[in-house]
Specification:
The complex is a heterotrimer. By secondary structure, chain B is α/β, with parallel strands linked by helices. Helix content of chain B is 28%, strand content 18%. In chain C, the strands form two sheets. In chain C, strands 3-4-2-1-5 form a five-stranded mixed β-sheet. In chain C, α3 packs across α6 and α14 packs across α15. Classes of the chains: A alpha+beta, B alpha/beta, C alpha/beta. At the A-C interface, α2, α5 and α6 of A face β6, β9 and α12 of C. The structure holds flavin mononucleotide, iron/sulfur cluster and FE2/S2 (inorganic) cluster. The site of flavin mononucleotide has 24 residues of chain C, from β5.
Chain lengths: 154, 900, 429
């Protein structure tokens, strides 16, 4: 069931577009914000509310990188693996993070705290390598910073 | 006209048309995938690349996708240019990086557009050495097999299923080189038109599951042109057989009727032809040895008829014109009865009068697609005449496009046009007794009883004529609605009314017709389309006979020693069972001709195996009065499986020897028919023209060219093929031998052209892609209002209309794509998807009747008990209960029934 | 040296509020444009200034606006969209403008909207720019409050709404027509052009999509004129440009410099040259989808035309430096992994060709490359060229590959002949 709060936010998005379906992505963003990811059930609820079939909404959901259709941990760790970070050692950074969190790309820590994903250029190439945890950007990331970064998250 | 230079040859072509389409119309070999003649261009696959040159001096040229270009005068292009060729070959190599090497076990093999294009581009060696991506397949229901690994991502399936056919349960998921075409989860595809995916998909992702059950390669099929018998629209089909079994139905293009597509009932509902319940053997009942030979039977029946008292014949709306006529010839006009109920007879006779009146156009499916405002009155098209629903969808889209044309965007540019149109669509109004699929697209909808709908239509007419209607407050909603509808209809140039017999209401049809007549004036080109119950309902109606109802209702004996001949009609479907029992008792002998056993055939003292459409030649007349011929697909059948007209023709000697001779061949039956019944004048031409077209030629081969892969018939037993069967009367030959040119269009048994093994070879059978066929379609519209020799009598409409006025709870049938049709349910998948016995009412009515949702109730109808599960639905009119039409559990209800 | 675009930017201090922005002359161009100029005059002025789109393609901005149908009988509403989807690897210039001086861009948007008579404007912002989103949200609210957005702006009868839209990640969303599909809530597949968005864009209505940096230039052109704008530049194209450098240089960053500043000046002057122990081997001059330039090109002027003459593109003007200790094959492989992953999946060459290229490069890195692979790579560069694919993603993707094959061919060959990557001891992961 969509919560009253979710519905309010979705309705606002709907009011900005000429027809309901056009707010489909926005609706997904809203529920993901709330629930961490978009389960089949959530997808169905949103689709129904938007007057779309599950297929129609999932077609859009699965196109984009940041609509998670599989469960993720409480925090999503994105490592920039694009060119500047590659030159500046993102592969090494990945190795280091793997050691700290004990997970590979696409995996979630057993305590469901972190999910690790590679990500395209985070737009701070002058301060590479970069890392993003939830909305927070970390630049010039060095091995010794990692413990402290991850400690911040519950 | 424009001059188009292709590889230094100049062609005169139409300006503004799509370049790829133009090349294909010129019959040039240019490969493509994402483009489809019915769906236009999107430019995704990049297969149709050609070079464009600025002028004669430009030797380098520019690579463009031909499907994304318009033809302009003076355009210079090259298909054979090496750069373009290499690129096209590379497109195939790319597609092959993931396409599996499974042609030998792929159902598409041998009729695969991807195979054809691969050969056409010359790609033969694959350099890709890495792993291919693989997918899980989905269960998509009983009709369509899914094999995602074969996907080449042309996006045609979603474009067809969603954009064209309006389905919403198939889509594309994911991105980059991981795009998946399917449903959100396993399950039956919900669209009534899902079967076209099989033809739309250029490779083996979506294939026909019914074919899979008795798989045969296209090159091993023996095929013939036919007409779908599963509803009244008469869509054109081709049937393919092997080993005496009908194995595949595919679309046969007809520019006016079904175009490129058919519905799922039409495509998959053919298994009855092969069913074990078929009547295979002539039987004379109540003897030691009941099974008899053809001669024994004919002799027996001839004797029986000669010594008989009155001979009563009952015709059928699912039998051909020829068969009905042959029966009438035996019984005489006065003793030939229509196998309809009184109500149906009245409705159809009245319809016939209307269709004949010339007061309005009777648009074809194609013409309906051009309509800019559609009002559907009392029909659930998706279930009663499915392809009309598809035509309506096209009309709504095309109107929206017309509204917003910007000269810079050509209509073939499908994605651009859809981006422009967005959610806009043409006007649709649905007035029906319940909410159905098309209602979703309707601007105005109104669910009410047939009586109330009739009133609404009358209001609309009055308003259109400028009369003011008296308002009283309770009717305010109706007033507003009528006003809105009128506004829209008034502004339309080409409004179309669609109605039919589903509501069993004469007044409703009368009102609808009046509306159409009002909409035909100096400014508007109003048309009306009538949906009728069966493939030859119109043909039978045109026979000008009375309904058999009074005979059935009347307890009086017919005469001493009377004989009844029932032609392809299970009377138990339509008539109250109690009455039938008495009725049959009135006859000493009951001769039944039919192709499947049913309750009526059980009453037979003489049972004659009738051919199905697949084993016979014949003519049927569709809902618009269009006569179309169908041809024998299964030639190699036991001789006793014969068209009813053939059997009956043999028996006519009861009248005169001379006649018997005349009724021997299909054509002679037709000549006799039109001389006796001039209202059918013209039907003989279908076959006569076809015959004269091939006259002096060899026969038309029913099999495509034989190549090394062709399997010998009975190869498991011997590689020596048996001698092909020759049907002396037939213009077809059952083998690949025969005339090698394109057959006359109405006689096209399959699509094949050198290099084009898939159904896309169709391009070669058309003068222009998407346009007319190479030769005339041959069919003829009989009810065009111009026909002078009409002696169809006016119907007395008042009696029935009076009946309709009664209040109370009325029982009406509800039509189902799967289940309502008598024969298609013999296909396992169709039976599986057929409804259970339910009775559907709205909450109001349920409360009144004290029915609870899902409980089983019993209804007493014509002294018989029926059991139904209660189904409560919103948007069902007050005063109405629905039960599913045509399923075994509702046989024998004479609709409409006023429930106590 | 004048630095109109960055004059107000102080990242330590944070962006100026509307009030402070106005104190330093902000929104003057809006007043001037709306009250004293006709849309046509604005479009002409911008055309004359020779402002070229900073999104990468370098099309004259005023000219682009002039294709929008004007007058009463045209489809409504019209839209202006600012493309803030910056996701081109190696590019981080728009972020600076968005976070540093949001009102400058909003002012540019208002003027541009007025010029094409758009009544709705969108900022299509990349999801990852969270900080920018907060900053923009605040700035937009300030504008509504001040009456610079909404109905009847400055009592001129001109109405404009502004909506901040954040994406959900896909490089292709930066392609203007894919962006429009994304805004419509659809899969971000590009649209075929023609029709161009100017004629049929968002919801089928006339639409202009401009880059952030492009629009930031507009207020200054209105205020100071076309000649002034042209005089800022050292080359043919008008104005200043935000150049950026990343990679193993001493001082990576972004700077606003006259258009046409030489590569040497940027690389050696502003970026401080290479880090100790690293040699300059080449660079991508304007993001991941531009051809390599090499030490031979250091004196090239960084403007659209000059860079094109040496076989590359100015692109976004943000350079990624390849040093001698980074394997060029690995470098290109990284780029192709990105492009293959970000292909939208619509057209065959890109969807199937790029993953193949990526796999070949990976096999080279693993020491499994074959002689014929180089030929295949070269052919792909040709086959995925402009016009052959549906949009410009794939042609962009093969630019660094084709130039790497040109300048660093021996490196590719060594991978094959040595059956390993000379930079790695066998390729891991
Ligand atoms: C694959 C691809 C990605 C693009 N990404 C961006 C982008 O992130 N930002 C941008 O401004 N332009 C991007 N563009 C260019 C836009 O399509 C468009 O040309 C630009 O936004 C127009 O703005 P301008 O005329 O102001 O340069 C991209 C183009 C392609 C083909
Ligand atoms: S080149 Fe083709 S597949 Fe690639 S992003 Fe553009 S349209 Fe999509
Ligand atoms: S048929 Fe032209 S691109 Fe697909």
């Amino acid at each position: 069931m969509l919560t009253a709060e979710e519905i309010k936010m979705i309705d606002h998005e709907i009011s900005l577009v000429p027809y309901r379906k056009a707010a489909g992505i926005e609706a997904l963003k809203i529920v993901q914000q709330n629930r961490g990811w978009v389960s089949d059930e959530t997808l169905h609820e949103v689709a129904e509310y938007m007057g779309m079939s599950d297929e129609e909404l999932d077609s859009i959901a699965t196109f984009y990188n940041l609509i998670f259709r599989k469960p993720v941990g409480r925090h999503v760790v994105l490592i920039c693996d694009s060119i500047s970070c590659y030159v500046m050692g993102c592969n090494q950074l990945y190795e280091n993070i793997r050691k700290v969190l004990n997970i590979k790309y696409g995996e979630t820590t057993t305590d469901k705290k972190f999910t690790l994903l590679p990500n395209a250029c985070l737009g701070c190439c002058d301060r590479a390598p970069a890392l993003m945890v939830d909305g927070n950007l970390y630049r010039d990331v060095k091995e010794e910073m990692l413990e402290k970064i991850f400690q911040k998250y519950e | 006209m424009a001059k188009l230079n292709i590889d230094n040859i100049t062609y005169e072509v139409t300006e503004g048309k799509n370049l790829l389409e133009t090349c294909l119309s010129l019959k040039l070999d240019l490969p493509y995938f994402c483009w489809h003649p019915a769906m236009g261009s999107v430019g995704a696959c990049r297969q149709c690349a050609v070079k464009i040159f600025k002028d004669e001096n430009d030797t380098h040229g520019k690579l463009v996708m031909s499907c994304m270009e318009s033809v302009k005068d003076g355009l210079r292009i090259s298909i054979s240019n090496n750069g373009a060729k290499v690129f096209r070959e590379e497109v195939i190599e790319w597609l092959m990086t993931n396409h599996p090497h499974d042609c030998p076990v792929c159902d598409e093999g041998g009729s695969c557009h991807l195979q054809d294009m691969t050969v056409m581009t010359g790609h033969d060696y694959r350099r890709y050495r890495f792993k291919k991506r693989t997918y899980r397949n989905q269960y998509l229901g009983p009709f369509i097999h899914h094999e995602m690994n074969r996907c080449i991502q042309c996006y045609r399936c979603v474009r067809y299923y969603r954009d064209y056919a309006g389905g919403d349960d198939l889509n594309v998921f994911g991105a980059h080189n991981h795009v998946y075409f399917g449903r959100a989860e396993d399950g039956v595809l919900q669209s009534a038109f899902s079967g076209n995916l099989v033809e739309v998909c250029p490779t083996g992702v979506f294939t026909d599951k019914t074919l899979k059950q008795h798989y045969t390669r296209k090159w091993d099929l023996t095929s013939a042109p036919s007409v779908c018998m599963n509803c009244s629209l008469g869509c054109n089909i081709m049937g393919g057989e092997r080993y005496g079994e009908l194995r595949l139905i595919t679309n046969r293009y007809h520019p006016e009727v079904n175009g490129y597509f058919i519905c799922d009932r039409g495509r998959f509902g053919y298994e009855y032809v092969n069913h074990e319940n078929r009547v295979y053997q002539p039987l004379i009942r109540n003897r030691v040895s009941e099974a008899v030979s053809i001669t024994e039977l004919t002799e027996h029946v001839k004797k029986l008829l000669t010594s008989s008292g009155k001979i009563i014949g009952i015709g059928s709306s699912r039998a051909s014109v020829e068969s009905n006529y042959a029966l009438q010839k035996i019984t005489g006009k006065e003793n030939f009865f229509k196998g309809f109920t009184d109500t149906e007879t009245n409705l159809l006779d009245y319809l016939l009068q209307l269709m004949h009146s010339g007061k309005f156009d009777l648009p074809s499916q194609k013409q309906i697609e051009q309509s800019d405002a559609i009002i559907i009155i009392g029909e659930d098209l998706t279930n009663s005449a499915p392809m009309l629903a598809l035509a309506v969808r096209q009309a709504l889209f095309k109107t929206a496009v017309q509204k917003d044309v910007r000269s810079t965007i050509p209509v073939w540019h499908d994605s651009a046009v859809r981006n422009l149109v967005q959610e806009d669509k043409g006007y649709l109004c649905v007035l029906n007794t319940y909410r159905e699929e098309l209602s979703e697209l309707a601007d105005e909808k109104y669910y009410a009883s047939p009586k109330a709908i009739t009133e609404m239509v009358k209001k609309i007419i009055a308003l259109l004529k400028g009369e003011t209607i008296q308002t009283n407050d309770t009717q305010n909603r109706e007033e507003t609605l009528a006003n809105n509808i009128v506004q829209q209809l008034r502004n339309a140039k080409n409004p179309v009314v669609i109605t039919g017999t589903s509501c069993y209401s004469l007044s409703l049809i009368r009102a609808a017709a009046d509306l159409a007549a009002t909409l035909k004036n100096e400014k508007q080109k109003g048309g009306i389309s009538f949906v009728v119950p069966e493939c030859n309902s119109i043909g039978l109606a045109m026979m000008q006979a009375s309904s058999v109802q009074s005979l059935i209702d009347d307890a009086q004996p017919v005469s001493d020693n009377a004989t009844l001949v029932v032609l392809e009609n299970d009377l138990y479907r339509r008539f109250a069972h109690q009455k039938l029992e008495t009725f049959f008792k009135k006859f000493k002998e009951i001769i039944v001709l039919d192709s499947l056993h049913n309750q009526t055939t059980q009453q037979a003292t003489v049972l004659i195996p009738a051919a199905t459409f697949a084993e016979a030649n014949g003519t049927v007349i569709n809902h618009e009065g269009r006569a179309q011929a169908f041809y024998k697909i299964l030639v190699n059948r036991p001789p006793q499986i014969r068209a009813s007209w053939h059997w009956l023709g043999d028996l006519i000697s009861v009248k005169t020897i001379e006649l018997e001779k005349q009724m021997k061949s299909h054509l002679s039956v037709l000549y006799q028919l039109v001389s006796d019944l001039p209202q059918f004048s013209g039907v003989e031409k279908l076959v006569a023209n076809a015959l004269s077209e091939v006259n002096g030629h060899l026969h038309i081969p029913m099999e495509p060219h034989r190549y090394s892969g062709r399997t010998a018939i009975l190869a498991n037993i011997t590689v020596h093929e048996p001698k092909p069967v020759r049907d002396e009367e037939s213009i077809f030959s059952t083998t690949m031998e025969g005339e090698r040119q394109l057959p006359p269009s109405p006689l096209t048994p399959f699509y094949w052209w050198p290099g084009w093994n898939s159904e896309q070879a169709l391009n070669h059978y058309q003068r222009e892609v998407g346009g007319l066929l190479q030769s005339e379609t041959g069919d003829i519209k009989l009810l065009n209002g111009k026909f002078v020799q009409s002696n169809i009598e006016p119907v007395a409409v008042t009696k029935q209309e009076q009946q309709e006025d009664a209040d109370g709870l009325w029982l009406y049938p509800r039509y189902h794509l799967f289940g309502s049709d008598e024969f298609s349910v013999y296909t396992g998948g169709i039976a599986e998807l057929s409804p259970k016995a339910y009775v559907c009412v709205n909450t109001n009515e349920a409360a009144k009747q004290n029915w609870k949702d899902k409980e089983t109730i019993e209804l007493n109808i014509s002294e018989r008990k029926f059991q139904f599960e209660v189904k409560i639905e919103d948007d069902v009119a007050d005063g109405i209960a629905f039960v599913p039409y045509g399923i075994k559990e509702t046989y024998g209800i004479e609709y409409p029934v006023r429930l106590k | 040296m004048e630095r109109p675009l960055t004059q107000n930017i102080d990242l330590e201090r944070g962006p100026l509020s509307l009030k402070d922005y106005e104190k330093v002359g902000g929104y003057a161009s809006m007043h001037k444009a709306l009250k004293q100029m006709t849309p046509q005059q604005i479009t002409k002025l911008v055309t004359d200034s020779n402002l070229k789109g900073r999104g990468g393609a370098g099309f004259n901005t005023g000219l682009k606006w002039s294709f929008v149908p004007m007058g009463d009988n045209v489809p409504q509403p019209k839209y202006l969209i600012v493309n803030a989807d910056e996701m081109e690897p190696g590019t981080f210039k728009d972020r600076l403008l968005l976070e540093g001086d949001p009102h400058q861009m909003i002012e540019g948007m208002i003027v541009a909207s007025y010029a094409i008579q758009a009544s709705v404007s969108y900022i299509f912002l990349r999801w990852a720019y969270k900080e920018a989103a907060d900053i923009l949200r605040k700035a937009i609210a300030e504008c509504y409050e001040a009456g610079y957005l909404g109905k009847n702006i400055l009592n001129t009868g001109f109405n404009l709404d502004m909506i901040l839209h954040t994406g959900v990640g896909r490089y292709i969303c930066g392609e203007e027509t894919a962006l429009i599909n994304a805004l419509e809530g659809k899969r971000a597949i590009p649209r075929a052009k023609p029709p161009f968005p100017q004629v049929s864009g968002l919801y089928g209505k006339p639409t202009i999509v401009n880059n952030v940096e492009t629009l930031c230039n507009v207020p200054h052109i209105i205020n100071k004129g076309a000649d002034w704008f042209k005089s800022l530049s050292k080359g043919e194209d008008g104005g200043t440009k935000i150049y950026g450098v990343s990679g193993r240089v001493k001082n990576p960053g972004a700077w606003e410099l006259p258009m046409g500043t030489t590569l040497r000046e940027i690389l050696e002057g502003y970026a401080g040259g290479m880090q100790e122990g690293y040699q300059f081997k080449g660079l991508l001059p304007g993001g991941a989808s531009t051809d390599f330039l090499t030490p031979d090109h250091l004196d090239v002027k960084m403007d659209f035309k000059t860079v094109a003459t040496v076989g590359s593109r100015l692109g976004t003007g943000t350079m990624v430096v390849l040093d001698d200790r980074t394997c060029p094959v690995g470098f290109v492989h990284n780029l192709q992994t990105f492009f293959a992953r970000e292909s939208c999946g619509w057209c065959t060459p890109c969807r199937e060709g790029l993953p193949w290229v990526e796999k070949i490069l990976l096999s080279m890195e693993r020491g499994e490359g074959r002689k014929e692979d180089i030929d295949l790579l070269e052919k792909h560069c040709e086959w995925l060229g402009p016009g052959n694919t549906f949009c410009a993603l794939a042609p962009g993707a093969v630019e660094p590959l084709q130039s790497a094959l040109k300048y660093f061919k021996e490196d590719f060959e060594e991978h094959i002949t040595q059956h390993k990557c000379p930079w790695h001891n066998g390729w891991q992961s």
